């Protein structure tokens, strides 16, 4: 570990390598033996569990219930919505057989050719099709609507280039799938959920996001409108962190889901879907961490306070540990998670570095001198500030710090993000800002797919979104010179 | 729904059909369009979530952490432990391709033959192999041990005959996988976890279970010892409800996982694994429910108290609803979940039947007369008793009832189970009891696989377990007449 700590690549030397190393060294995740699939290690999973718990509470508070739908989707279902299958066909894992048998020519086992499935099954890359095929039986009349379901599940998309958390063949996520009687209600739901994601990103992840609509070209396959939250990473690249789709009647028509309205007439049902995934872990790591390791907002930190005794000999340790335990008990009563690290086989300097790597928000250290003086050393991970404080009032101080650190991390990320939004009006400026500074670019766009694609081909920048709060503003497209009525948000992205 | 309620098959007419109908009609689960895979509906999933939360807390309290490992297992890994592959090969879903493409001969999509995987992937039926391949990199010295991980996940076993919750191709479960320095510590862990399951079954599910060892023939594929909890259903058949395996060094040897012990010597690591699944839902339903529907122990009931207003006209409803809401607020403060059902399109009798079907532990009904008298009608689901009680002290009374009902359901199940354990000493008696009464049979067995198989072939009864608390007792095998030193537990089972 000591070696590992020192070896963390500097983020300004190689951001991508810094990220990969940090994920592994902080014990968050690692690559598995299966191409593109990751192992989420206990420390990483503990953060994901906190994300899940907070999101799940927010979903339930907005009237949603959890359910569970099959992992497998019959190939024929998958093909029913034309845009949908087009969007996902190239990245599907396909189950074709259901049995192994002993290899007649040698040792080991082979796939049993006699056990071929009549219809191949797709491992779900997303569940609209299997869910709408199910909803068909749940919905007869307007009284059965709305249906507000969410599912926590694993999904598989056979990505060619994968990165831990950011893009993996298998990932964990939640997918909400709702059914409504009217277009307006479905649109309202899609908007409500993107704002739930925004609230979660800002209040739990300390991550400011821009809410907006995707351009038609970047919409979810099968959606009429895709709302997104876009975050900015410290290297100036954007990261799409959650999406909420208004699906119109596309899936209802593909699966023939109609209901009898109050007037006794048959109508197709309106749909939304929305999801966030373990990709949020990548956003959390990249948005806040530094060359010493992770910086975790207290609300998502598995360990919020770590205590390290500074001692010589068993007697001193016993005394300090007792004092720590008394403080820990008080902190735990306030709902603050605490770890006392009294390992005797590593030095305290090593422990300090380890908890910095792991992003523990507050570190307390206490030695014999502190015991005499009634003091304690308190270090903040977010600012790296250290000070010696009185043990008196310590619990209240730490309780306050939890909020203060949470907000400070947000403010820092927000200040960075604001400093990285540039309004540009010419194509030369567009390219220059993108190359020299990066970040978000607010520019006029003529609204055509051709221009969008041309800009992407020329610069690798895409339209991240058309912000919901973008004011009307007359201008000309930065690329084509054609008229435009509002600025959209461009960036290079993950 | 009214039709559905009346149509529930009587359990004594056709137990199996009663079960299937109950699962569907109570809104717990249904078959999906994918062979053998179920949809867990919101009401069923809400019970599963409560099970998960309680178990997860118990796992964490015993020092375990959650993690997540890949859905897919390379075929070669799967084959490394000989007994393991033998046990699971016949029921594996196999991913062979990773892309679809447009069918050149017609419409729709087909599997792209050019996108064949170099090595086929097994959809995990259980994760020992991929996890031990991972642990290899986590374990170097005794300081890295123990590893105490749990995973909440979906697994797939291609079963030919499936039944909702009891046996499905895909199911949800948790699987604990621990690594230890010594044989003794691993055995202790396996025992600790089977007792965690026992405690959960008894205290949360109100389900008495027998704890014991599986006979060698019934062990998990790759285990040296399998501990089990066995429950009895109301039709007299046993249901294996959870297992905990001492895996010896089998997987450590298969994946070459060694550690340096305190003396500096290399040793193979010792392993356990343990799991419970959505099968527990089947146990919960079959153990307690009746011809009116589910009977849920309060600790697992998504709705613990339902309130039904009895009224004529909007004014009465407004008044009653206000009173209900005041009571509901007090109950919620005590952590009791409450639903007020003021639907105006169904009669209250229909509502009563619906909440009986759904197993809501306590039902409150209030009409104008009750409003005048300060009374309320209180009905218990477990006993079907109804009484008119004072509104005064109602909250305390209901709080007490939650515990009382939880215990009463357990006591009833325990009394039934005890009445269904029969000691038999002759083969004729064995067959007679099995056919006429069913339940558990305590009988002597000579300890051989031959006898075990012969008994199963003759009667369909298997050795459910060798109970951990079975006293030493000399006797002769009920089948072979050979000497035996303790009785074992036989039953027909799910």
SSE arrangement:
Two copies of one chain form a homodimer.
Chain A: H1 2-6, H2 15-25, E1 29-31, E2 38-40, H3 42-61, E3 65-66, E4 72-74, H4 75-78, H5 82-88, E5 94-97, E6 100-102, E7 109-111, E8 116-123, H6 128-138, E9 147-156, E10 170-180, H7 183-203, E11 210-213, E12 225-232, E13 238-248, H8 250-254, E14 258-260, E15 266-268, E16 270-277, H9 279-288, E17 305-309, H10 313-333, E18 338-340, H11 348-357, E19 362-366, H12 368-373, E20 375-380, E21 386-390, H13 394-419, E22 421-423, H14 427-436, E23 440-444, H15 449-459, E24 462-467, E25 475-476, E26 483-484, E27 487-491
Parallel strand pairs in A: 3-9, 17-18, 17-19, 22-23
Antiparallel strand pairs in A: 1-2, 4-8, 5-8, 6-7, 9-10, 10-16, 11-12, 11-24, 12-13, 13-16, 14-15, 19-20, 20-21, 23-27, 24-27, 25-26
What does this structure look like?
By secondary structure, the first copy, chain A, is of the alpha+beta class. Chain A has 3 domains: 253 residues, 2-Layer Sandwich (BirA Bifunctional Protein, domain 2), CATH 3.30.930.10; 99 residues, 3-Layer(aba) Sandwich (Rossmann fold); 71 residues, C-terminal domain of ProRS (Translation Initiation Factor IF3), CATH 3.30.110. The first copy, chain A, has 15 helices and 27 strands. In chain A, the strands form 7 sheets. An 11-stranded mixed beta sheet of chain A has the order 3-9-10-16-13-12-11-24-27-23-22, sandwiched between helices. Chain A has a 5-stranded mixed beta sheet with strand order 18-17-19-20-21, with helices on both faces. The longest helix of chain A has 26 residues. The first copy, chain A, starts with a helix and ends with a strand. Chains A and B meet through strand 2, helix 3, strand 3, strand 4 and helix 4 of A and strand 2, helix 3, strand 3, strand 4 and helix 4 of B. Strand 5 of chain A pairs antiparallel with strand 5 of chain B.
């Amino acid at each position: 570990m000591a070696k590992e700590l020192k070896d963390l690549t500097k983020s300004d030397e190689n951001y991508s390598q810094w990220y990969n190393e940090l994920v592994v060294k902080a014990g968050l995740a690692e690559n598995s033996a299966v191409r593109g699939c990751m192992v989420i290690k206990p420390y990483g999973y503990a953060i994901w569990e906190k994300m899940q718990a907070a999101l799940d509470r927010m979903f339930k508070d907005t009237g949603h219930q959890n359910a569970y739908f099959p992992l497998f989707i019959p190939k024929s279902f998958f093909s029913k919505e034309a845009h949908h299958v087009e969007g996902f066909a190239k990245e599907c894992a396909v189950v074709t057989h259901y049995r192994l048998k002993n290899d007649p020519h040698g040792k080991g086992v082979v796939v049993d050719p006699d056990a071929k499935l009549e219809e191949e099954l797709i491992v779900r890359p997303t569940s609209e099709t299997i869910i709408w095929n199910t909803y068909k039986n749940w919905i007869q009349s307007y009284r059965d609507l709305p249906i507000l379901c969410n599912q926590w599940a694993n999904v598989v998309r056979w990505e060619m280039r994968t990165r831990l958390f950011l893009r993996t063949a298998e990932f964990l996520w939640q997918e909400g799938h709702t059914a409504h009687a009217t277009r307006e209600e479905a649109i309202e739901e899609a908007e409500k959920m993107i704002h739930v994601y925004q609230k979660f990103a800002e209040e739990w992840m300390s991550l400011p996001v821009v809410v907006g609509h995707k351009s038609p070209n970047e919409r979810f396959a099968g959606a009429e409108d895709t709302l997104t939250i876009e975050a900015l990473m410290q290297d100036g690249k954007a990261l799409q962190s959650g999406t909420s789709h208004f699906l119109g009647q596309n899936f209802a028509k593909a699966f023939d889901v109609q209901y009898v309205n109050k007037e006794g007439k048959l109508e197709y049902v309106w749909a939304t879907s929305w999801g966030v995934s373990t990709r949020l872990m990548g956003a959390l790591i990249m948005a806040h961490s530094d060359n010493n390791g992770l910086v975790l907002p207290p609300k998502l930190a598995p360990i919020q306070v770590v205590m390290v005794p500074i001692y010589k000999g068993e007697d001193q340790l016993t005394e300090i540990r007792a004092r720590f335990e008394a403080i820990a008990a008080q902190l735990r009563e306030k709902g603050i998670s605490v770890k006392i690290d009294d390992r005797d086989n590593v030095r305290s300097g090593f422990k300090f570095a380890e908890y910095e790597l792991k992003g523990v928000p507050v570190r307390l250290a206490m030695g014999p001198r502190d015991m005499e003086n009634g003091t304690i050393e308190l270090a903040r991970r977010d600012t790296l500030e250290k000070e010696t404080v009185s043990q008196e009032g310590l619990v209240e101080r730490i309780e306050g710090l939890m909020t203060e650190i949470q907000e400070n991390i947000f403010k820092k990320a927000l200040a960075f993000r604001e400093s990285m939004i540039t309004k540009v009006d010419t194509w030369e400026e567009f390219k220059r800002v993108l190359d020299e500074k990066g970040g978000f670019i607010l520019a006029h766009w003529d609204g055509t797919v051709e221009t969008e694609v041309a800009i992407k081909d020329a610069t690798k920048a895409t339209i991240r979104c058309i912000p919901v709060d973008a004011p009307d503003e007359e201008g000309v497209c930065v690329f084509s010179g054609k008229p435009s009525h509002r600025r959209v948000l461009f960036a290079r992205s993950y």
